[in-house]
Amino acid sequence: MTTDPLAPPVAPAALAEPAVPVRGRWIALLVLANLGVWMAFFTPIQVLLPQQIKAIDPVHKEAMLGWVTAFGAAAAVVVNPLAGALSDRTTWRYGRRHGWTVAGAVFGAAALVVLSRQHTVLGVAVGWVAAQTGFNAMLATLTAAVPDRVPVAQRGAVSGWVGIPQVLGLVLGVVLVTALITGNAAGYVAVAVAVVLLALPFALTTPDDPLPRGFRAGPILAGLWVSPRRYPDFAWAWITRFLVQLGNALGTLYLLYFLTDRVHHPDPEKGLLVLILIYTAALAATTVRRGRRGAHHAGAAEGHRPGQGPRRGQHRQLRPAGPRAGAVRADRGAPRRVPHAVRRHRRGHRPRQRVRAAHPQRPLAGLGGISRRPQVQALEVYQPGAGRSQDFARSEPLFG
After folding, report:
1. Is 354 contained in some domain?
2. 321, 315 in Cβ contact below 8 A?
3. Is residue 246 in some structural domain?
4. Measured between alpha carbons, how far is 192 from 106 in angstroms, rounded to an integer?
5. Does residue 348 sit in the same domain as residue 289?
6. For residue 177, what is the domain's CATH number?
7. For residue 8, is it within any domain?
8. Does one domain contain both 109 and 176?
9. Number of Cβ atoms within 10 Å of the Cβ of 367
10. To which H or E segment does residue 377 belong?
């Protein structure tokens, strides 16, 4: 069997665009793994760290908690994209993602166990930075699983399910360390065990395509920068996600101290659980619904609904506007202003064969399941006495 030397190289399976929809079992295991990592993030922040720091320094507990969480956030900013870039370049024969998932879960769990035995603010800060390092490496590879394995038309719905553990993990974690487990140190150990047990089924039983050893990627540091001018959709997605996380932090970080010192709640831990349940119910009620709507629009971006042909009105042929000389017809979404080429034609100049329509519309920016629907534009000018139209602008999807 011979190969065509002029044929384009075939991308390895690890880099190919997924085409086979994922099954419910795969989604469920990914949700469980994400549940573990979000429990490990939020349970210490909401309950365990505030209680531990209050026992160490009750006078300056608010400032000390702020410093500890700030150092952890700084570690997350560095580790998350770096671990993702390293996993992109991993050529382990068992796959490039799952090894990082397991290593991050085990390292972060060990850091929580060490953190549970600290009796100084410095020791707590070091332990929390170590935990953030492990869990952010785990989170980076779990996040990459969706574009690695899920087709575009299914990503909105899957992203909706994967988003639920972010709030559900907070609820279950708080229940675990307040209602089921007694003691701060035991709470850390319980969360450490849970994150490992929830991550292993996904890492050990789901496929992870390996990257060929001959693969050569670009520099890591250069690859971490994504130009917001060249990729505005990514920039808007990053800003939106940052603002969502900032709002969560502002509203929940000092909630236990607020219930204790300002509200004087008789049982602040129980009050915290009630508020978190209300927050979770409101958020979960919208997550999957918006994800499904995003999946529907993602299918529209491909030019069709699931199981149907092209959407009505996309790439449709335009009919003549009538016998009136110089009549202009435009498809939906096309600019209403007459382009320069049409004005030249009316003055007797011979128009160029193809020109681009003026002021193309920008696509809809998307985050997760929100779609980027192509804006199809076409413009035809009908000359007097001509049997067919002169095509001045190609009908093409414009992605900016």
Report:
1. yes
2. no
3. no
4. 8
5. no
6. 1.20.1250.20
7. no
8. yes
9. 16
10. strand 375-381
Residue 217: Cβ-neighbour burial (10 angstroms; 0-12, 13-18, 19+): exposed
- Do the Cβ atoms of 240 and 247 come closer than 8 Å? no
Question: Would you report the helix, strand and coil content of the chain in percent, each value rounded to 5?
Answer: 60, 5, 35
What range defines the domain where residue 346 resides?
328-398
Q: Specify the amino acid at residue 386.
A: A
pTM: 0.66
Q: Note whether 294 and 339 are same-domain residues.
A: no
Contact between 180 and 171 (Cβ < 8 Å): no
Each residue's pLDDT, cut to its tens digit, for the chain (400 residues) gives 455 555 556 667 777 788 899 999 999 999 999 999 999 999 999 899 999 999 999 999 999 999 999 999 999 999 999 999 899 888 888 889 999 999 999 999 999 999 999 999 999 999 999 999 999 999 999 999 999 999 998 998 998 899 888 888 888 998 899 889 889 999 999 999 999 999 999 999 999 988 887 766 667 777 778 889 999 998 999 899 889 888 877 777 888 888 888 888 888 888 888 888 887 777 767 665 555 555 555 555 545 444 444 443 344 343 444 444 444 444 444 444 545 554 554 555 554 444 444 444 433 333 333 333 333 333 333 334 444 333 333 333 333 3
Q: Which string of b and e fits 155-178 if b means at least 16 CB within 10 Å?
A: bbbbbbbbbbbbbbbbbbbbebbb
161 lies in a domain? yes
Contact 374, 363 (CB under 8 A): yes
What's the number of domains the chain is made of?
2
